[in-house]
UniProtKB/TrEMBL annotation:
Organism domain of life: Bacteria
Gene3D superfamilies according to UniProt: NAD(P)-binding Rossmann-like Domain (3.40.50.720), ornithine cyclodeaminase, domain 1 (3.30.1780.10)
Coiled coil spans: none
Name the UniProt record assigns to this protein: Delta(1)-pyrroline-2-carboxylate reductase family protein
Lineage of the organism: Bacteria, Pseudomonadati, Pseudomonadota, Betaproteobacteria, Burkholderiales
Species the sequence originates in: Acidovorax facilis
């Protein structure tokens, strides 16, 4: 019996090549398109505990053309060691042939799709989308949200608050390189009254924002993704619930959004981003809190875009296998 050898699988794309497949505006648009695609199937993610507080995440998703699985580890103990806290890959398959088509850098996918979801939410829900923008937390997600909001919304004034002065200064320099004015601030709460755009991007070990937002504020909170985690003070969340609007990124957030659950809010009654976009109009008045916990559907959107740009456009540079 003879067997036909499959076509050689492509090499793994490194972080830079993965990012090149995911321009901010195009990725936000792909996420919006995915939310209208009835063929998308996203089972609940599997999270397995690892020693020293780490976790292994297994996140599959499919549509009519693409199947993908994200396999990453989160290792908080790596902070400050030079090793990344998030490591892993996103493997993309053609559903018709079963062929593996791409292997994308997992941390890059996670950073860019998270910020692109915040960008999409801001494009549709932010009352004052031009900023100034306050970024709380100057790590990977702080950088991703800086780039997404500067390049996707046209923000030109950025304030950075971080417990690490060196990280805050580095993010300021990056903002300036992108053409924005930028400064560091010692107290995030003191900056809140001056900033109608806020991105809270910390590891969520403790509350970092307590001051109530402006009536025209849009707040994207992305650091807390379990019921035990929180970046926002309970009073902050209750203020927005009473005077404005709260939107969660997916149905999974209804049992994962620690900020909201710890505030005693009925998270199950809050609209998802899909539902908010279907209304096709921005909230009428009051601050908007967009609470994002992550969802494999966002990774699928990134995989779809990378497949399209990688096969129909110029092939991205591949890392050495």
């Amino acid at each position: 019996m003879s067997f036909t050898s499959p076509s050689p699988a492509p090499g793994t794309l490194d972080a830079a090549a993965t990012a090149a497949c995911l321009p901010w505006d195009a990725l936000a648009a792909e996420i919006a398109a995915l939310l209208q695609d009835s063929t998308v199937s996203v089972p609940a993610r599997t999270v397995l505990p690892l020693p020293q507080g780490g976790s292994l995440f297994v996140m599959p998703a499919t549509d009519s053309r693409v199947a993908m699985a994200k396999l990453i580890t989160l290792t908080p103990a790596n902070t400050g060691t030079g090793r990344p806290a998030i490591q892993g890959d996103v493997v993309v398959f053609d559903v018709t042939t079963g062929e593996r088509r791409l292997v994308l850098d997992g941390p890059t996918i996670t950073a860019r799709r998270t910020a692109a979801v915040s960008l999409l939410a801001a494009q549709h829900l932010a009352p004052q989308a031009q900023g100034p923008l306050l970024i709380v937390g100057a790590g990977v997600q702080g950088l991703a949200h800086l780039e997404a909001f500067v390049q996707g919304l046209g923000v030109r004034d950025v304030w950075v608050a971080s417990r690490s002065a060196a990280s805050a200064e580095a993010l300021v320099l990056r903002a300036q390189a992108l053409g924005a004015q930028a400064r560091t601030v010692a107290d995030a709460d003191a900056a809140v009254p001056h900033c109608p755009l806020i991105a809270v991007c910390t590891p969520a070990h403790s509350v970092v924002l307590s001051a109530p937002p402006r009536p025209d504020a849009f707040v994207a909170a992305v650091g807390a993704f379990t019921p035990a985690m929180a970046e926002l003070a309970p009073a902050f969340c209750r203020h927005v619930a009473a005077h404005g609007h709260i939107v969660v990124d997916s149905e999974d957030a209804r049992h994962e959004a620690g900020d909201l659950l710890q505030a005693g809010l009925d998270v199950g009654m809050l609209p998802t981003l899909r539902e908010a976009l279907q209304r096709q109009r921005a909230p009428s008045a009051g601050p908007v809190l967009f609470k994002s916990c992550g969802w494999a559907g966002w990774d699928l959107a990134a995989a779809r875009l990378a497949m399209r740009l990688g096969t129909e456009g110029a092939p991205p540079t591949q890392a050495t296998p």
